[in-house]
Structures
1.
Amino acid sequence: MVLNQEIIDKIHRLPKVELHRHMEGCISAELLLEIARDYNVKLPTDNLEELRSLIQIKGRVGSLQEFLDKFYWVGMAFPTLEAVERVSYCVCRDCARDNIRVLELRFSPVFMSLETPHGWEELLHAVLKGARRAENEFDINVGFIVGISRSNGLKLAMKAVNIAGSYVGLGVVGVDLFGDEAAFPPELFIPAFKVAQAQGLNVTIHAGEGGGETNVRTAIEELGARRIGHGIRIINDEKLMAWIRDRGIPLEIALTSNVQTQTVPDLASHPVRRLYDYGIKISLNTDDPAICDTTFSKELLLAMEVFDFTLDEIKGLMLSAFDQSFLEEYRKKMLRPKLEMELAGVK
Ligand code: HPA
Ligand code: ZN
């Protein structure tokens, strides 16, 4: 589809639902610089463009690991609890400005605590406080997913799951496993995700991205994943595709991120349309918009431009993402009619 200003405006106005977005990957060079100035954090440069080139990917990187290396300086954005709250607020506010009405935002307490003396509980409180402030000011609902980095090992995964479990019903809706999939396959983390399920946490796992498609089956069968981050390598295995379709397990797709990490050789070969046409549930997402230099609206427009998704299909994807969301059922019951009405209003 050829895009024009009218469709660009409609997509911006559209009420949106995003399920796979890392808070750390939403920290722009501007925000990082502001925090560094306000809290005396030492960065390698105080030049905005130089800083941007350190944290943002232009074109592609060689691997998922090189992509993950881009997060190094972003870790400096959390020097105090006030800064953590501010980051959380700014990220949710920026989503609301892109008309995201329902957001699942993930963050790693381990990563966040690297540069602060604060404990995870305090950090979590600050994150929730920032989001609640944004929810009070803007039309957005946020659920948090506690992210667990594969490279932090099983012991910290257990600790993260236990903290997340104590915030079920208080803003945390699930847990996620992310990071270097090739080096740390999902089966290493089975004990932690068994505990997560027992605590009523919803599980989503990055799988079939930096590692093989069999990780997707393990994530579902052994770790209890109810959604899969990326998962696009299942395109190599039709039996697995049928199995995932029949189980109704959704894939959280992020087009630009998948190109940048070389999970696909180029955008045109991304399997999003084939997966969708096969009947697999999907959502569209940004993953790490500040690092990938994208926005949610841009990702939806890419899907329309390159894969011919129509406006009606995009609206359908918003409702489907809403239904896939881990938000508490009572909140979903309240929010769905309004979302339906607002979607119908964009013609
Ligand atoms: N994959 C693995 N780890 C990540 C990602 C991702 O897409 N984004 C942030 N950490
Ligand atoms: Zn991700």
Note: The chain has one domain: 5-344.
2.
Amino acid sequence: MKFDKWLNERLDKTKEAGLHRTLRTMNTAPRPEMCIDSQQQIVFSSNNYLGLANNERLVNAAGTVLHEFGVGSSGSRLTTGNSKWHEKLENRIASFKQTEAALLFSSGYLANVGVLSSLPEKGDVLLSDQLNHASIIDGCRLSKAETVIYNHVDMENLEEKLKETGSYQHRFIVTDGVFSMDGTIAPLDKIMSLAKRYDAFVIVDDAHATGVLGENGRGTSEYFGVFPDVVIGTLSKAIGTEGGFVAGSKVFIDFLLNNARTFIYQTAIPPSICAASYAALEIVEHSKEERQLLLSKVKQIKTSLEEIGYTVKGGHTPIIPVIIGDTQKTVTFANRLQEKGIYAPAIRPPTVAKGESRIRLTVTTDHQFKQIDYLLESFNLIGKELNIIK
Ligand code: PMP
């Protein structure tokens, strides 16, 4: 009783601030139109950018291996959890990312935490973009190195911080490739030049860029034609499955296998998921037209919303954040969208800064143009109703 009372008091504060979160139940496979709880909704908030999460080739690939290898991997990779499918997928990821080697983790979150908590040592410094993902922040917190934050994609500020940190032993610049809440692309070409000038290493979390950016979907490295020291990614967004990975040199992967605690002490992902991911990468590399189509939909949505008076961030990635500002108004906006059959949840502090609450839209190759038209029409109506646009 005492325990629950204490927690209820804490939760009440969250509720009073309008920041309480609850779960919704997806009653259909991931696709643009889904049954959520008991209501049909057009979903504009999924990371299934290329529509692969429910792709038949992936489902069949997983199904075949599922029957052969069972549902669980039964142990960590270093004990009984390693299968030929884990190795096949790692080799495939390395060739996709054009690195010597790759290592699977159970999630992108754990890949970030694993790298950042093991690679930098005491006496080193991590220079981290202000808007980096929570898993990078947590990785930095677990690291024995110090962390210095630079302003979001601000290269002058990063250079200042590099000048100020000359006395540290090793320096690491760590950045999202595509920022999950703003949809901005990190200027990786400029970051690489600064790293070269100031003798720093570069770590990129390409969670949202993998499968989306670059001619062959290899991510921000391909988009800018550069090769960072460490590329981290997830299979859970455009690739459509589950799991995280790190791609880099052979010696770095060997280092992680021996030092990253989130690799060593975690049960391996199931072989069936590796097989589905392998099938996904075969598709992703040949999805040039789909990527172009995706980005043309992004452009249509962003331009149309700006034309009717909204402030929209991002621009060249499927993440389209529409800034509403006030938290309560953003929640009301999301509820009104839902009443109209559109699912695009409100993103509020602490996920984003105070006063920057937003509706974070994401678009996928599967969205039909009539669904996009309906979205734009609804934004026009609700925006006027709530006095956000004229
Ligand atoms: N990095 C970024 C930028 C992300 O947006 C996410 C997922 N929200 C992750 C890492 C974590 O990936 P995963 O979902 O595979 O744990």
Note: The first helix runs from residue 2 to 16.
3.
Amino acid sequence: QGILYIVPTPIGNLGDITERALKTLAEVAAIAAEDTRHTRKLMQHYGIQNDVFALHEHNESQRADAVIERLQQGDSLALVSDAGTPLINDPGYVLVHRCREQGLKVIALPGACAVTVALSAAGLPTDRFSFEGFFPSKPQQRRAKLEQLRTETRTVVVYESPHRILHTLADMDAVLGKARKLVLARELTKQFETYLSGSAAELLQALTDDTNQQRGEMVLLIAPLPPETESSDGPGEAAKRTLLLLLEELP
Ligand code: SAM
């Protein structure tokens, strides 16, 4: 039986790929890629030649069977996404889940991921964190999500798009208030990498003053609810938090 390798690729800086990743991409029988053109360009940059076929969110379910068949026949394959770690807000979960069900070997290589890069440099607590992917695009759902996160005692990491950042910050200002610290990590590993920290209102101001800060790829981090806020709450607040937690658990 072959092995499915999960291979992270750079999130901006082309130097951020491991020797092992390059060797794996060169040695597997073929590479399943989110976007074949994008991956071919990357391979060309590293001087790697290999077969590449498409596995993206629209064909993953149907392609997974063919991939599993190849693995069962003895071919080892690699899975890559456009940037960073596959499966982290990228295709791959359906395939890996089915491989596990079939008892096939899956090996993930360590590598670039915007979540861990942002978290390691943001200066917020890293002992516990929650990754929320992208917030819902509909305003009402986004605010409901933020309401849930109001009492979160772990650092929260979210992916954000330049088109929505101002709306998200405005909602965060309304729901999380002025005391909650945020960090906006932008263009990580690239030329214009920036970390901005402050309340939602302060970040809104900074992004309005310098519209360049609204551009590019971004990760938003929300500081945990400070312990003093927790302990100084009246009983009403504590009960409300418990109720919120219970509601989250309900189907
Ligand atoms: N699989 C990727 C990873 O491991 O980070 C994430 C893919 S997700 C479709 C793309 C989102 O990740 C972007 O919209 C942005 O929120 C975040 N992201 C990716 N690269 C980034 C970078 N260089 N700087 C900041 N955020 C980045």
Note: The mean pLDDT is 93.
4.
Amino acid sequence: MIAIYPGSFDPITLGHLDIIQRGSRLFEGVIVAVLRNPNKIPLFTIQQRLEQIRLTTKHLPNVEVDSFDGLTVNYAQVRQAQVLIRGLRAVSDFEIELQMAHTNKTLSTQIETVFLATSNEYSFLSSSVVKEIARFGGSIDHLVPPHIALDIYQCYNHNSQISNPTITETVPHLQSIPMEVPTEKLRQQEA
Ligand code: PNS
């Protein structure tokens, strides 16, 4: 059975990776599908996100990475997938996710949504949280794969050493280095 794991993945986090890894053990194949959403101003382009996710999941032979637009159930049908995977972190997710699952069921009775409870250590984690921490100079090394952290630090024009309060305390001149890029105003709207 083939499952689709749809989402924005802007950027992929360790919480997403946890769901992908567990999904790949449950299903014959998992397609991580990045929504091309014209209504959002993303931090990373679709191409960048596809590359980031491919690198993150390269150790999982039954995982494919793709992008799509339009309805997720239509994409699932085109890819001959029977399942949509979604992660659940908290009750607040459940309300939105249940509504989405019910909506998708009205669009296609053939597609089932399967919820995986997010592992405890990632129950607070979202792409928005990662971007918020990075924007204000904090370390995100424990929240995303190392190569994604580097990409994000580059976007916000800082590195993890500068963001570490214990280091900035001992090297005060680092605190004066600007942390934001001009396009940041746009990105704040999206977070
Ligand atoms: O990572 P996200 O932003 O929580 O993912 C949301 C996503 C992409 C799964 C959802 O917005 C979606 O499926 N969008 C495609 C449009 C669609 O199918 N809408 C009907 C279901 S509400």
Note: DSSP finds nine helices and five strands in the chain.
